[in-house]
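User: Fold this; tokens only.

Assistant: Input:
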Amino acid sequence: NKKANSAPMEFYRTLREARRSGGTHYLYEATVGAGLPVIQTLRDLRETGDDVTSIEGIFSGTLAYLLNVYDGSRAFSEIVVDAKQRGYTEPDPRDDLSGVDVARKLIILGREMGLTLEMSDVKVESLVPAGLEQGSVDEFLTRLPQHDAAMKARFESARSRGKVLRYVGRLTAAGDATVGVVELDAKHAFANIALTDNVVRFVTARYNANPLIVQGPGAGPEVTAGGIFADLLRLSAYLGARL
């Protein structure tokens, strides 16, 4: 569902037309935020007449974990290996570190807003060092320590100014979409989250001075299953089931 809904617009339109012409329902809440009601919240805002100005958030539990744990005392490459052993990353950590998965989620949200976003429209900062995109996973993990100094320098620079590093996706109503590491004040809502939390902030006409925030675990079998089950219950209600 995530790849289908972020595929090229031609395929996306074909998918939507198949749903309309077939009179079917197509639900995919868990594609963004696992069990968090991110897509439904966006739909509710728009369907009740609110104007969504921007959406930003931490959309990857893996990248949230890596940058939450990293404090400069351990090598970043060591934390990546540890996260892989804990099952927090994909079998190939580059699938997380590339930022492409976060970009797909922004595309899904953008299309829910009526934007015609393509992957090429999203500015993505990859945390996979240049030259390590190819090769086996073992080779990648063996060579990753060569790039620890660059991450530490970036971390120390941010810390010297009272900032923290977070991997954030940002999307505006004008279609500007960016994914990458940003420096945030230590008091920022995104700076103080649980290790693998996702957090999404909606800035709208109604929620302007005080944006609407959806936050909670963004990964794991239980919460993902909960998101899928919620869609199943919603589908059952659409089909007339008495719940």
